[in-house]
Specification:
The chain is α+β, with helices and mostly antiparallel strands. It is about 25% helix and about 35% strand. A hairpin with a 2-residue loop joins strand 1 (about 50-60) and strand 2.
Amino acid sequence: MSMPFEKAAKELLNRRKAGVKAPQLPEDIRPKSLDDALAIHQEMLKQKGDAGGWKCLLPPSEGQIIAAPIFMDSVQRGETVSLIEDNSMARIEPEIAFVLEKDLPANTEGYSNEEIDAAIGNCHMALELMQARFDAESGATFYEKLADCMVNQGLFIGPEIERELAYKASEIFIDIEQEGLSITKEGKHPNELPQNPLHWFINYMTKRGQSFKAGEAIITGSYAGIVEVDFDLETTISYKGLGEYKVTFKRK
């Protein structure tokens, strides 16, 4: 791994703290291509630790992808979730997580949809935890944002969802309730069905040499975009017909 990737990874990891609205990366360590951005991900994993999960979407356009690791120490479960505030708020995205129960080793031939589905164990309600670390006026390029894991700061895994229902969940009515706050979203998956990005992502990454391990959770797109909620209040999150849970957000 060349030195610029090591330096870029260290700089991006150092920005994962409250109050950060950073400029572009210095020119000498700035990713200039898809391969550069994904190489920085690998260096971040070396410096930070194993992946506990991944985020992905179907590619938005030619030469662009949405794919990034979620670090093991940022994957959470339970009744509270700790996250870095962003503009004084907890920023979340309601998603579905697919948790692997079998390894999917790197494979130049990729995997069929059926093989990928067979490797999935449980499906869960989930929240992607968000933090925009680049200043809005920074001029950061797509490849810089990709290298920075596309605003991800972690993942919360909630209750299990019946697998058959998760695979049919193109639309979900989502209710988020806090004291003084009530949000209802007629949620739609950005890629029609949540497993569509999963199938693409596993194929794309395993052909590139990435292996996936049992226990890793993969999220595939928000049903409601970014939702801002308050800290230190019990929050009820409901996916109509799929499940409900309560969680309290705490500042890191």
